[in-house]
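[SOLVED] Need 3D model of a two-part complex

Original post:
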Amino acid sequence: MKIIETKNLVKRFNGVYAIDRLSIGIEKGQITGIIGPNGSGKTTLINLLSGVLKIDSGEIVVDETEKITRILPHQVFFYGITRTFQNVRLFEQMTVLDNILVVITERNIFSSLFEKHIEYHHKIAEEVLQKVGLWKKKNQLAANLSYGQRKLLEIARALAMKAEVYLFDEPFAGLFPEMRKIVSIIVQELKQKNKTVILIEHDIGLIRELCDYIFVMNEGRLLAEGKPESVLERKEIIEAYFGN
Amino acid sequence: MEYLIHLAILFAIYATLGVSLNLVVGYTGLLSVTHAAFYGIGAYTTAIFLTKSGVGFFSSLVSGIVIVVVISFFVGVVLSKFKGDYYALVTFGFNAIIFAVFLNWQNLTNGSLGVPGISRPELFGINFANNFNFLILALIFFVLVYFASRFIVNSSFGRVLKAIREDETAIAVFGYKTLSFKLVVFIISAAMAAVAGSLFASYITFIDPSSFQLTESMFILAIIILGGLGNLRGSILGALFLILLPEILRFVGFSSDIDAQMRQVVYGIILILLMLYRPQGLIGEYKL
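Solution:
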């Protein structure tokens, strides 16, 4: 089952196509890699799927039924989608714990005014922070964490959402081997829980190791798709990615 | 003693204004420079109701709050289209418009001549014409505003406000309608300013547009920046500091012909030094 599809998706910046009539389908419960050189439109695609950018034309289909031509950032949550950002975007002057609690609070304004964080919320926060090894730093400001810890906190924040689809934009970039291992385990566990992961990554080794299926993008277009072991052997892909 | 009570009343009014503005600027990260407009609308509503319609202080206070809630709703909707510096400029413009209304709507506001003869409240047989009694009243309202604000910032709602301040797009993708959160806190803050305005009108018993100019909004902003953004106690400290500092400078022995000017200069220098060496304010948690 295709949990997300894009149909002729287009995004232009000042007339230049960042995404050019892109049509891809993401299978539910799989880890799907999106690879391509810098500027190929990978992050733009994630930004379109998460409502951060407006779609110029084309549509996104969720669960094979819901057709979307316009999506606002706050609506993404209701489609069961969550994400991380290429450049880490935390709530810097809030504690590590608050960075998690804030995304699992009431969305209704009136209810949020009178909501008290019950044990359940703290349990979720503890669970995800333990998973990324940041529970002991729960009272520190996010701004005071190291780069790797900040990346892990962002992943923990996404995990706390208990979403169906996780859009991870270069989650391994700049991480120490030990941290990469943590993220790798998280991605695999999500798959075991039948969650869908869309992974933007430059490390081909990780793509081979983790992904069930990959899309290769270049200049906003789809260059190739298929299982990593077959796609990554193709000459034109190697050339597009690594040059001649 | 009367002088100290007078300062304490001013402190209570400005602390109310500071705490309420901190909700918008310090906690939500919206640089609003229009608090004096809502403060003024609250003051004028109370003044006009008390002098022209004969209703009591508390009815006029509630009327002021209702009017400010309606106006701030529309202003907030317009402001939702702006961010950053543009947001600040639009709030600036709104304050200028309201000031022009106070100045030019002669039939209602009496223009630059102002509204004299505003009465002091009376409740349960207590006459607040007595300054000490009025101080108690002003402090009661301040405490109510403070605890309401504390309740807000400690709630899940308050945590979302802080997240909006830190990164509005990031919190939006987690399912929060940030525009609604910003609008609601803006209205709450404006309503609190209206309370301070009502108290001010009734205390001074005379108001004119000069009390609600842009400079007044800047003064309230200075209170919260100086005291500390994102910290309610900081607003109290800021109000205390900025209300008392000019008074303390009276005791510095400047010669009488330059006394007033020198006090202003020293006041300005102290503010500049504080911002140079303590940009997050006295006890602030957030820098603009």
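Edit: Chain B touches chain A at residues 151-152, 155-157, 159-160, 162-163, 165-167, 169-178, 180-181, 184, 230, 285-286 (CB under 8 Å).
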